[in-house]
Specification:
By secondary structure, the chain is α/β, with parallel strands linked by helices. The strands form 4 sheets. Strands 1, 2, 5, 6, 7, 8 and 19 form a 7-stranded mixed β-sheet that branches. A 6-stranded antiparallel β-sheet has the order 4-12-13-14-11-17.
């Protein structure tokens, strides 16, 4: 069979590109490795975190893991939200798609739903300013933000952050924030004029989680279990949209396939060669259009291998990330027993108002359901004393997570290398930031902490978990108006091909300082609709 469109991957971008194609009646196939959790999910009760802690005798299995894989022995680094029920997301990746990196902590996935199966659900649109050096504009993406928001469900409100995010019409009411966040936001409103004059803005976040029933999901029951399970199906996961797609007769989902390469025929049709992981043999699938949405590292590997571009440097960007545990003094001694959700409670934007300097985007999380021992490791106290202190401090603890913009430079790149022993090709990742850039980022972080101190929140320490931990990757096959090899045009068509499109983070020429998943989805929907027009 020759599909009208064949999509590689099943993550946020993949299902977003597929939806308009399937709705238009085109024949669409999806190739996926498709790992899933088949152990812990079925053990998690449909109950709140506090109830589980009090009543479930099996809780140690999914909180700590049968092999204690939920207890990190090193510094808190990549994906602290990858609890035992979520660790299938990274399963098999280093064995089948190896990466060599000395100073970078890569995160990649072969899971059904990709990395968005464990994302924090921040649905932050890019503004005109964020996109000022992209070859597409906010106007190009605006209708697709709304279409994706309606499809997945985004809760939020118009607030002081809206000028930095742009208008989003398809919004559900915001999720309820907890008492810790409410005390911070109330103080912000009382000091708003002065804080805004200093370039500091705060509000409730836009979240891909449901404040009310939507498309047979939700609403959020404030169980505070989103990093462990999805019993209320409030937080959007790609698996939900994939399930909708599978209800169409013109859509086919194929797994377990590890896609290795593609080749175009003279007539423009594309052959995709994959390894069938059940049989161990290579198989071919054919399509008129190929859409790569396998995640940056997997997509980059497939393209470089297919075009025989070994030992060729391609640019790479990743949002630098730091976080600060903070004490909210107004909450010290208060009880911690309320129902809440697990996602970001607040968002902040800091605008340095310096020509050429980007805004900095941050999120404030309350800390409870990820378990105290993960923060205790960062405390300069013996374990027993740290546990006693932490029990008292948890209601007043807020985690400020900050992302910084990243742009290409000679010290950040990926290279595909052949394995000398005959194993899978190895992707080499090199990443570093100049000291001057790191010092500037630290200076802006200090300005942000100064504003939080005026709100009664004091940082305990700065935690820099290393390069790569933001999980926001881009730039290897950038969108560009310049006709250069290993770039894509504004319709995401890979230059040098007639029928190969790329719709994941690989195409972002740089990364503004906010989560990229929602914009990836909007762009993928845009390309899906564009391909529909080409068929018509």
């Amino acid at each position: 069979m020759i599909y009208d469109a064949l999509i590689v991957g099943s993550g946020a971008s993949a299902v977003s590109a597929a939806y308009p194609l399937v709705e238009a009646g085109l024949s669409v196939g999806m190739l996926d490795f498709g790992n899933e959790d088949r152990l812990y999910g079925q053990l998690i009760p449909n109950a709140s975190f506090l109830e589980v802690r009090k009543t479930d005798p099996q809780q140690h299995r999914y909180f700590l893991g049968d092999r204690f894989e939920g207890i990190p022995l090193d510094a808190l680094s990549v994906g602290p939200q990858l609890t035992p029920p979520r660790q299938y997301i990274t399963k098999d990746t280093q064995e089948l798609t190896p990466i060599d990196a000395q100073s970078f902590f890569p995160f990649k996935s072969l899971a059904l739903g990709g990395m968005a199966s464990g994302w924090g659900a921040g649905a932050f649109p890019y503004s005109d300013d964020d996109l000022k050096d992209f070859p597409i504009s906010r106007k190009d993406l605006a209708p697709h933000y709304n279409k994706v928001a309606e499809r997945i469900g985004v809760s939020g409100e118009i607030n002081d952050l809206s000028p930095f995010e742009g208008e989003l019409n398809a919004m559900l009411p915001p999720l309820r924030i907890d008492t810790n966040a409410t005390t911070i936001l109330d103080r912000y409103y009382r000091r708003r004029e002065k804080l805004n004059a200093a370039g500091f803005y705060m509000g409730k976040p836009l979240l891909a989680a449901l404040s009310q029933r939507h498309r047979n999901r939700g609403p959020d029951r404030y169980l505070d279990m989103s990093f462990w399970g999805d019993t209320d199906q409030s937080v959007w996961r790609p698996a939900y949209t994939l399930k909708e797609l599978q209800s169409f007769s013109n859509f086919s989902y194929h797994r377990p396939f590890l896609v290795q390469s593609f080749a175009e025929r003279n007539d423009g049709d594309v052959e995709v060669v994959s390894k069938n992981m059940k049989s161990g043999r290579p198989e071919s699938h054919w399509a008129k259009k190929l859409i790569l949405a396998a995640g940056l590292f997997n997509t980059t590997r497939i393209v470089l291998h297919s075009l025989n571009q070994y030992d060729v440097k391609v640019p790479f960007v990743c949002n630098p990330y730091t976080y600060y545990p903070m004490l909210n003094l107004r909450m010290i001694g208060k009880p911690s027993g309320e129902e809440c959700h697990s996602l970001a409670q607040l968002c902040v934007v800091y605008d340095p108002r310096v020509p050429g300097q980007p805004t900095i985007h941050g999120r404030v999380h309350s800390y409870r359901s990820l378990l105290n021992f993960k923060v205790i490791k960062e405390m300069p106290l013996p374990y027993r004393e740290a546990m006693r202190v932490m029990r008292m401090l948890v209601p007043s603890l807020a985690i400020l997570a900050l992302d910084h913009e990243d742009r290409p430079s000679p010290d950040k790149y990926c290279v595909l290398r052949r394995d000398p022993s005959g194993g899978p090709d190895r992707l080499e990742v090199v990443y570093s930031l100049p000291d001057q850039v790191r010092k500037q980022q630290l200076q802006y972080e200090k300005e942000i902490l100064k504003r939080f101190r005026s709100l009664g929140c004091f940082a305990l320490k700065r935690v820099w978990p290393g390069y790569g931990v933001s999980l926001h990757y881009g730039g290897t096959l950038p969108m560009s108006r310049e006709k250069r090899d290993l770039t894509i045009d504004t319709n995401d068509l890979l230059r040098g091909t007639r029928s190969v499109y790329i719709v994941d983070g690989s195409v972002f020429p740089y990364l503004p300082s906010k989560g990229m998943t929602f914009t990836m989805m909007a762009n993928a929907n845009r390309i899906g609709e564009q391909i529909c027009k080409e068929f018509k």
